[in-house]
Design brief:
The structure is a single chain. The chain is an alpha+beta fold. Strand 5 and strand 6 form a beta hairpin. Helix 6 runs antiparallel to helix 7.
């Protein structure tokens, strides 16, 4: 009986907390002078809706910011940012007492002990995304460990999945919780992203990516993000994150819903793991491969197919001599290996 009472009470409290519209609160001590024009330019660059871009040629900035949900113009004609607008566009977010610190750390090894690189940021969102891109790029591997693949830019993690998790952390953070911060930690074998606050009621880890209907804690923040390339498909972020990890042959993302909502992305841990769709994720410029060779590499990678000269020629309906030429070319470029079994050569990754 007591357990049931606690459950109902918890549900009631969560529902009440979720009804608090934190990010729409108007900051009466703010004006248009608090707006960072560089942040506005970054917003313009990220916009996916041409009609909003066109507004910058015909409307004043305060009216545009009001239109996108970043603030309000009062009866005197004075523009005031709301808390969402401050997080996106304010020169000094700290002036408005909004906890928004991000800690990015690259650790040496698999434990949070020896630090290789770190960045603690209090920047507005679009500047923060640029900092994230730079930090992620310089602290994850690029390239291969097998000779032939050294010529190809093979990323350690799918950037779209990592960025999706990072954007989710700043968009869905519970900003009413004070004293905490978002953490973005890179280890040798994984990336961990943690954001203050549990999933907004009634979402659970089990329903993430199952129900497409989005549930936003910060409607204004998500509303601004949704106008940009950073949140293109409403309610499908978790599904796309899972898809990208699967494309890279990496484990499915792990989610922990506690005081902090945490996403764990397991990496290849120093191994060369090729993405399923090589054409999409790998740049073959300079290797001069034909479509048959690229298709063969995909089948060998995804389906673990091994080819002989005969099976290759049969698959692509070409002569035995042409098939042999294709496979020998891939072998010479160290993209595949060959072994002799009885009287035939077998090619494999």
């Amino acid at each position: 009986m007591l357990i049931e009472v606690k459950r109902v009470l918890r549900k009631f409290i969560d529902t009440k907390l979720e009804s608090t519209n934190f990010d729409s609160e108007i900051l009466l001590d703010s004006t248009i002078d608090d707006v960072d024009l560089e942040a506005v330019e970054l917003f313009k660059d990220a916009l996916k809706e041409p009609k909003i871009k066109d507004l910058f040629n015909v409307r004043e900035l305060n009216k545009i910011l009001e239109y996108v949900g970043a603030g309000k113009i009062d009866y005197t004609g004075t523009f005031h940012l709301n808390k969402a607008g401050a997080l996106f566009f304010a020169k000094d977010i700290g002036k408005f007492n909004i906890d928004h610190e991000i800690k990015m750390v690259r650790f040496n090894g698999i434990e949070a002990y020896d630090i290789i690189d770190k960045l603690f940021s209090h920047e507005s969102f679009f500047k923060l995304i640029n900092e994230f891109n730079n930090f992620f790029s310089r602290n994850t591997r690029l390239g291969g460990t097998v000779k032939g693949w050294e010529m190809l830019p093979l990323p350690e993690y799918p950037k779209e999945a990592v960025r999706e998790a990072f954007i989710n952390a700043i968009a869905h953070r519970d900003y009413t919780l004070t004293g905490g911060c978002i953490t973005f930690y890179i280890y040798d074998d994984r990336i961990e992203i943690a954001s203050p606050g549990k999933l907004p009621f009634p979402l659970t880890v089990e329903t993430l990516g199952v129900k497409i209907t989005p549930r936003h804690r910060n409607k204004n923040i998500c509303g601004i993000f949704e106008k940009t390339k950073y949140m293109e498909h409403i309610g499908t972020g978790i599904t796309r994150m899972r898809h990208e990890m699967d494309e890279f042959n990496l484990p499915e993302p792990e989610f922990i819903n506690d005081t902090y909502f945490q996403v764990i992305l397991r990496g290849p841990n120093g191994k060369l793991i090729l993405p399923k769709n090589l054409v999409k994720h790998v740049n073959f410029n300079g290797l001069k491969l034909n479509e048959r060779q690229i298709s063969a590499l995909e089948k060998m990678n995804i389906e673990k197919v091994e080819f002989t000269h005969k099976s290759y020629a049969k698959l692509f309906d070409i002569s035995l001599a042409t098939g042999k030429r294709d496979l020998l070319d891939l072998s010479k470029k160290d993209l595949i290996y060959k072994k002799k079994i009885k009287n035939a050569y077998v090619y494999y990754i």
